[in-house]
Design goal:
Blueprint lengths: L5 H22 L2 H25 L4 H31 L12 H15 L6 E3 L3 H17 L7 H17 L3 E3 L12 H13 L3 H23 L1
Antiparallel strand pairs: 1-2
Helix pairs in contact: 1-2, 1-3, 2-3, 2-5, 3-4, 3-5, 4-6, 5-8, 7-8
Length: about 230
């Protein structure tokens, strides 16, 4: 009886990680916020795996997973962007900062669609919420670390929020790093992605953001070639 609660416990740890990430985001500590988003992503990876290994998958676990994901990968990155936009505008244009929460709403919509969409067993339709969260968390942390600011940056960030919100719910097929076999044939796009990501890892936070952007571009190219 005890083992059936293990996956849901891991999912709750994901949710708690998202809550802690949100706290640090509102404090303006983007390093800690990103760290707890990454910790949440680790828990998110293992909860489904453990459920399958223990043969204790359940409908409530599926719903709980989406709720946890919307906190960790929807609300927490939105909180990072809210704090960053408020910092950029120095409260003089504070309503702009609230645009950050558009992304939290679209993340919830994307997760709801995922639960109902049977096409996403081997891949994704639209940008996965963890990838979106890691992109924004890494980008904002990198910008703050290197003190890279320019006139009108807040509007660029808002435009980026709208683009990523669209990518979350669009019909663009995106590959998943799931391998049925380890051979090259049938896994070309996955191996190309993994190999090209290696040099990007040396770019720090910007490298992590670049990896997510490259994932979207490569998925779009692969989708066009498949048509």
């Amino acid at each position: 009886m005890f083992k059936k609660h293990i996956p849901n416990t891991i999912t709750c740890l994901n949710l708690i990680s998202g809550c802690i990430a949100t706290y640090w985001a509102f404090q303006g500590d983007y390093h800690m916020a990103l760290l707890f988003i990454i910790i949440g992503a680790v828990f998110d990876f293992f909860d489904g795996m453990v459920a399958r290994l223990l043969h204790v998958s359940s409908p409530i676990g599926k719903e709980l997973d989406s709720l946890a994901d919307d906190i960790t990968f929807g609300f927490a990155p939105s909180a990072i962007l809210f704090s960053f936009l408020a910092q950029l505008t120095a409260d003089s244009q504070w309503p702009i900062a609230y645009c950050a929460f558009i992304m939290a709403a679209f993340s919830a919509l994307r997760l709801a669609k995922f639960n109902l969409d049977e096409r996403q067993a081997l891949g994704f339709i639209g940008l996965p919420t963890p990838a979106n969260a890691l992109f924004w968390g890494a980008l904002v942390t990198g910008l703050c670390d290197h003190q890279l600011y320019f006139e009108g940056m807040e509007w660029c960030i808002v435009a980026g929020i709208l683009v990523s919100s669209y990518l979350l719910v669009c019909e663009l097929p995106m590959f998943a790093l799931k391998f049925k076999t380890w051979g090259w044939k049938g896994n070309e796009i996955k191996y190309v992605f993994l190999l090209t990501c290696i040099p990007l890892l040396f770019l720090g936070y910007f490298g992590l953001a670049a990896i997510i952007a490259w994932y979207v571009v490569l998925s779009a190219v692969n989708s066009c070639r498949s048509r």
